[in-house]
Here is the input.
Amino acid sequence: MVDEKSDRPTALVTGANRGLGLETARQLQADGYRVVLTSRTESKGIAAARSLDADGKQVSYHQLDVTDQGSIAALAQDLPNLIPRLDVLVNNAGIGSWGGDRRLAAQTIATNYFGPRDVTDALLPFIPRGGRIVMVSSGLGELSYLEENLRARFDSPTLTRPALDSLVASYLAALDQGAQKRDGWPSSYSVSKVSLNALTRILGRDLSSKGITVNSVCPGWVRTDMGGRGASRSVPVGGRSIFLTVKLPADATGGFYRDGKRIPW
Ligand SMILES: NC(=O)c1ccc[n+]([C@@H]2O[C@H](COP(=O)([O-])OP(=O)(O)OC[C@H]3O[C@@H](n4cnc5c(N)ncnc54)[C@H](OP(=O)(O)O)[C@@H]3O)[C@@H](O)[C@H]2O)c1
Here is the structure.
């Protein structure tokens, strides 16, 4: 049940049953946030939430598969029963795909780009003035991974959401035809994160009149299931990079950060 009198800030983290999502939830909880931990598999998410907070007073749980419209709608419907408002949304859920498997490449775009886009749209009505949206991106989403023509289109200061969606659609069409390399596209993972970063810039601009900030973060190369054992950073260090983006000054919006410092798009 919602404690209406609680003035504790609230946060929701996607893909938080393991890895950087769980760590971000842990760091937000330690900082005094009431956290809604979400995961696509309920049993794993409930176990993760209990590992942070056995009695569920500071950390509550809701199922969320970011690629499933029904799951997103159910979360939006239930959210008012969990928290009075949403101060911080961390779009963390993601998958990695670097090879040529077309099905996996399309799934990567669905999870890493359409997922955070649709979750943000659905939860926006709960985010008040002063709210913060953090997109967990990657250095592999830097514009430098694109060839010149594509880079200019993604980097355009006048890029709109429909234009961004049609750029992503042109990648998916190239993928269907097996023409993505010929057309100059990098890995699906890079395309997903470049697109997510472009969305961050657009939303940062569009939501500034509502007093809501939107920033992207690179956690660095982290020893999670995705990053592998050979990665250079521990999970707490990677999670801290995400946490510091949540805690940026109130006027910082539309930027890309690592460890609380701006990095190039
Ligand atoms: N690790 C790195 O070096 C690194 C570097 C740069 C950026 N990142 C980014 O950091 C974020 C977290 O990655 P990680 O390293 O913590 O990876 P991870 O250990 O593989 O965890 C990924 C999380 O995303 C969840 N997820 C995947 N698809 C989902 C979906 N459709 N709906 C909801 N949740 C879903 C997974 O849930 P399941 O357990 O159900 O699969 C898991 O909880 C990702 O966005 C990733 O791209 C990671």
